[in-house]
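Support request, please re-run this one:
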Amino acid sequence: MADLQQARTAKSHLRTALAGRDGVRGIGLQASGDGYELRVNVERPTDGDGVPDRVDGVPVGVRVVGAIRAS
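Re-run finished. Output below.
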């Protein structure tokens, strides 16, 4: 499992890789077991196509959150 610093570095790399991609609503860190993983929030299920399973050895999960609107 990745420690917090490894996950933060991987998040920065993933953010660069996904910059400007339609449907990506957020990229974050999530505790998982005894370490961390990356979480990519997308609008539609197909928006997660092509998101890598791992970045710099850190696991990546995709979650469909739908459209984000101000309330």
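The first strand starts at residue 24 and ends at 32. The domain at 4-64 is CATH 3.30.300 (GMP Synthetase; Chain A, domain 3).
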